[in-house]
Design brief:
Layout (H helix, E strand, L loop, with lengths): L8 E6 L9 H11 L9 E3 L5 E3 L17 E6 L18 H14 L4 E4 H4 L23 H7 L12 E3 L8 E3 L4 H11 L13 H13 L10 H11 L6
Parallel strand pairs: 1-4, 1-5, 2-4
Antiparallel strand pairs: 2-3, 6-7
Bound molecules: zinc ion.
Length: 245
């Protein structure tokens, strides 16, 4: 399992398992693998007792949030739904102090990490082929992480500020582009434009520069290998669709 090369986002989830469920990490792994994934999607799991368990591995590229796995730690609280499967914050409210402790631990491990909830990013399948786990609970993680985390002194992702939804291809759901994810986003566009560059890791290295030069060549731009404003505009123009107001 490859490791993330950088970790700029911490994404909070709930497992959407029913009250009293006691399968633990091994149970989650089974559920995720039954969906065809290679391992549990989350990097870390917070049990109902408040104990933190290793999921896929803290540093591994997880499978928990479409489009952001290469730069995001996924931390899931066990719970999140009532016996009828409806989103229920009361199932995880008591875990918030333990969640804050876990986030402090990861703050030290990943300097610069900024926190948000799954639903702040892309809770729905967007059909872009990037692996994500089974839950797809639109309400995940059943509370508003950003104001809560901010009140506890954590750095939070700038979701509602400079992030904006973009439609990559006609007929697909919008995905969010933001400052934390811009490089990974541009790599996705290059890949989708047919320029293979290796793993989408959010790091502009030699492979990304080579793919950028190839793209620039294909559209008649100077081959600088740099994702400058003109190149980005041309690249985005391939995919982004003007949405009707
Ligand atoms: Zn989630």
């Amino acid at each position: 399992m490859p490791n993330r090369k950088k970790t700029t986002l911490g994404v909070i989830h709930v497992t959407a398992t029913p009250p009293g469920w006691s399968g633990g990490v091994s149970g989650l792994r089974k559920i995720h693998m039954a969906q065809g994934w290679s391992d549990i999607g989350y990097n870390a799991v917070l049990g109902q007792s408040g104990h933190v368990y290793v999921g896929r591995g803290y540093d591994a590229v997880g499978a928990h949030v479409a489009g952001f796995n290469s730069i995001a730690l996924g931390l899931a609280m066990i719970g999140g739904v009532d016996a009828q499967g409806r989103p229920d914050f009361e199932t995880v409210r008591h875990l918030l102090p333990a969640l804050a402790s876990a986030m402090s631990f990861f703050d030290k491990r990943y300097p610069g990490i900024r926190w948000c909830g799954h639903r702040d990013l892309s809770p729905d399948r967007n059909g872009n082929g990037i692996i994500e786990p089974f839950e797809h609970l639109k309400a995940c993680p059943v509370f508003d992480v950003i104001p809560w985390a901010e009140s506890k002194g954590f750095a939070v992702a700038d979701i509602r500020g400079t992030w904006k939804p973009v439609v990559l291809e006609a007929g697909t759901a919008p995905v969010l582009e933001g400052p934390d994810t811009r490089d990974a986003y541009l790599q996705r566009l290059l890949t989708r434009a047919g320029f293979v560059l290796g793993p989408i890791d959010g790091i502009i290295g030699e492979k990304t520069k080579a793919a950028t030069r190839a793209f620039q060549s294909s559209v008649g731009l100077k081959q600088t290998g740099t994702l400058d404003a003109t190149t980005v505009a041309r690249l985005r123009g391939l995919f982004e669709v003007n949405q009707a107001a």
